[in-house]
Write a structure and sequence with these properties.
Length: 174
């Protein structure tokens, strides 16, 4: 029979996965709308077509281009922001779980940094689709700062969690 703490970790992971899956469509839609809107505004500013005098057929290519940019923005921002955030939470929960094997713990430690690097790259690419946002080379610094803060927060949670676990284990032994 599973211990209560094992069941609690499984329940926590299940809740995180469900929340990530349920919130993904909303985040994707939001990033899509923002990316398409900014792309449409940039197209209108750069090409300055006579929008009011155009027919629906003449407007279609502009709309298609802005919708495509919106999909790209949504993809990169979801891969750079939404998915890594929940992966960080799952990795942190996994590292706090005292019942996992040491090999898997090593895998989680390495995967934390892989998620960190991939999140930075995708966030930097995705932020280039936002109106006045920085393009790729310049966007790496803000994305790195964001993910460094996330890594620090996860590290603090791990430190506090390990401290609490150690104190609980000492209390149980006494």
């Amino acid at each position: 029979m599973a211990k209560k703490s094992e069941v609690a970790f499984i329940a926590l992971i299940t809740i995180v996965v469900l929340f990530a899956a349920l919130s993904l469509p909303g985040f994707f839609k939001y990033f899509y709308q923002q990316g398409a809107g900014h792309a449409f505004g940039e197209i209108m500013d750069s090409e300055n077509p006579p929008w009011n005098s155009m027919t629906k057929l003449e407007r279609k290519p502009y709309q298609i281009r802005s919708f495509a940019k919106g999909r790209e923005c949504a993809l990169f921002m979801t891969l750079g922001q939404h998915i890594p955030m929940y992966l960080f939470i799952l990795i942190t929960v996994g590292l706090l779980n005292p019942f996992i094997k040491s090999r898997f713990r090593v895998f989680l430690r390495y995967s934390f940094w892989v998620v960190w690097i991939l999140g930075i790259v995708f966030l930097a690419i995705g932020s280039g689709y936002w109106g006045q946002a920085l393009q790729l080379p310049a966007a790496l610094l803000p994305a790195t700062m964001i993910y460094t803060i996330v890594a620090i927060v996860c590290g603090v949670v791990l430190g506090v969690g390990k401290f609490v676990q150690k104190n609980l284990n000492n209390e149980i032994r006494k």
